[in-house]
Amino acid sequence: MHRVLEDPEQYPISLKFGWPKLSTNEKIFLASMFYPLFAIASQLSPEPRSSGIQVLETASYQLHCFQTLTGVKFLAVVDPRQTGVEALLRRLHELYADFALKNPFYSLEMPIRCELFDTHVRSALESAEKLGVANV
Predict the structure, then answer these.
(1) Whole-angstrom Cα distance, residue 93 to residue 99?
(2) Is-annotated flag, keyword Transport (predicted)?
(3) Is 79 among the domain residues?
(4) Terminus of the chain with fewer CB atoms < 10 Å: N or C?
C-alpha cells in the first residue's frame, strides 16, 4: 500500500477541503425546486413588483439568487458564513454577458461552449475563494 505522506516525491502536497461538488443532476434538481419557490415568493410578497427570493438560508448553507433585468437567474450555494456572494454573482453575470450574449453563435438556454468564458469564470471563482467569498 502506497502512503502519500511517507513518500517525499509527493511534496509539496496541496490539500483542499470543502463541500463535494454537486453533480449535474443535483444542480438541475436544486434549480427545479428553486424556481417554483421563487415564483410563489414573487406572487405572495407584499412588495409590489417583488423580485422574489434573493437568499434562502438554512443552518448548513445559503442559496443566493441574482436575477438580471432580463430575468436570467444566477444561483450560488455557499456556506452560511460567506460574504460578498452578490458581488461574485454580478461578476459572473458580466462574464456571461461578455462571452455568451455578445456571441452571435450562442443560443439562449444552451450550454456555453467557450474556452475563454470557462477560463474567466474559473479565475473569478479562484479569486473569490482566495478572498473567502464563496464556493459556487
Answers:
(1) 10
(2) yes
(3) yes
(4) N
Global model pTM greater than 0.85: no
Give me the number of domains the chain comprises.
Answer: 1
Q: What is the pLDDT of residues 66-78, one digit of tens each?
A: 998 888 889 888 8
41 with 52: CB under 8 angstroms? yes
| Residue 86 Cα to chain centre, angstroms | 10
Q: Position of cell 427545479?
A: 32
17 CB contacts (<8 Å, ≥6 apart)? Answer: none
Mark 23-43 as b/e (b = at least 16 C-beta within 10 Å).
Answer: eeeeeeeeeeebeeebeebee
124, 90 contact by CB (below 8 A):
no
Between 52 and 14, whose confidence is greater? 52
- Which residues span the domain enclosing 94? 53-130
pLDDT tops 50 at residue 135: no
For residue 90, the one-letter residue type is: R
pLDDT tens string 22-50: 788 887 888 888 888 888 888 888 887 77
Distance CA 94, CA 99 (A): 9
